Amino acid sequence: MPLALWALTISAFAVGTTEFVIVGLLPTIAADLDVSLPSAGLLVSLYALGVTIGAPVLTALAGRMPRKTLLLSLLSLFIAGNAFAAFAPGYESLIAARFLTGLAHGVFFAIASTIATSLVAREKESSAIALVFLGLTVALVTGVPLGTWIGQSFGWQSTFLGVVALGLIGLIASALLIPSNLPQGAAPGLRAQARVLTSPRLLMVYLITAIGYGGNFIAFTYLAPMLTDVTGLGAGAVSLVILLYGASVAVGNVVGGKLADRMGAVPALTLSFGGLTLVLLALGLTITSPIAAVAVIAVWGGFAFANVQPLQVYTVQIAREVAPEAVDVASGLNIGAFNLGIALGAWTGGIAVETVGLAATPFLGAGVVAAGVVLTRLSGRLDWQAAPLPAE
User: 20 to 30 A from 290, CA-CA: which of 36, 188, 202, 223?
Assistant: First the structure.
């Protein structure tokens, strides 16, 4: 694999860290800025909303820009957003910084994937994309718990400064290693994206993504305050528990892809969503017991992220049937559905925290993910009904 791919991996590590590290820092930020936990939770929602809006809009608007120029511009926007967050004078400016950073996120992964495939031979394209997304997985395993520890020990601003440093490394490496003469493909316009969004079958898949994946964030967004205020763990233990969660995520990503290949997307999603529903119920029942709660969290991340690859595979399968000319557009919009689910999940969790308390969020999340199971089975039934009859 060319060295340029590692520049993309480092950048993906920085982007992945800044997205999820906020979860471990919510109590610290809420106390420092004198806002409620639900208000701090909007830092998760607004970032995800920025991704949801930025991915389709910026992709369409910047479609004619050379790929390397676009990548460097996105990384510069990402660095500026995190620097703004590190020196934000108050809650409102931090919210704005998170939204600004989120705008760069969705387009970054889209353009990084296309650059990665253009750097290698066709038979190595999947491995190249996997190497880019390895940065996101490693961020969940190491960057998020390390960033949480740094924020708890030296102030949450230090975490954002650390991400700025990572972003600068990725920017410099990309500027030096990625060639300027990359092939320029035709970028999907807003009209092509609108055509995809008129397909009832694809809309069903996007709804499954938003509900099934996003339901997890009703509880996950408030994991740190749950561990300290309900479970009774010390603040220093939170980063270790998040490390455990991240290791579970890494396993779940691998297993989810293998399940989709072996069983098909709908059975794999039924299994992962069903397991996630049970895990969230178990978390709600054990959250007051440190040992039991940590044991549940050790498998939680695996079920929470085992659905990511099957959801993408399922989107592509449906798009090939109903919109074969816009498969890439359909796949990209599913990334928006993931982040819309995060935004709605974090917002819903904040309402639950305000009205019924932290301990209720796993139960509410389980109910929403269970709705994702029902929708998945319904979608599978529609697939069966739409399948052509075998020739006699």
Answer: 36
Structure tokens at 90: 């108050």
SS3 labels along the chain: CCHHHHHHHHHHHHHHHHHHHHHHHHHHHHHHHCCCHHHHHHHHHHHHHHHHHHHHHHHHHCCCCCHHHHHHHHHHHHHHHHHHHHCCCCHHHHHHHHHHHHHHHHHHHHHHHHHHHHCCCHHHHHHHHHHHHHHHHHHHHHHHHHHHHHHHHHCHHHHHHHHHHHHHHHHHHHHHHCCCCCCCCCCCCHHHHHHHCCCHHHHHHHHHHHHHHHCCHHHHCCHHHHHHHHHCCCHHHHHHHHHHHHHHHHHHHHHHHHHHHHHCHHHHHHHHHHHHHHHHHHHHHHCCCHHHHHHHHHHHHHHHHCCHHHHHHHHHHHHHHHCHHHHHHHHHHHHHHHHHHHHHHHHHHHHHHHHCCHHHHHHHHHHHHHHHHHHHHHHHHHHHHHCCCCCC
**What pTM value is reported for the model?**
0.85
Q: Which two tokens stand for residue 91?
A: 């809650």
Average pLDDT over residues 90-102: 93
The backbone torsions φ and ψ at residue 379, rounded to the nearest 5 degrees and listed phi first, read: -65, -40
> What confidence tens digit (pLDDT) does each residue in 290-345 have?
999 999 999 999 999 899 888 888 888 888 888 777 776 787 788 888 889 999 99
Place of tokens 């296309």: 114
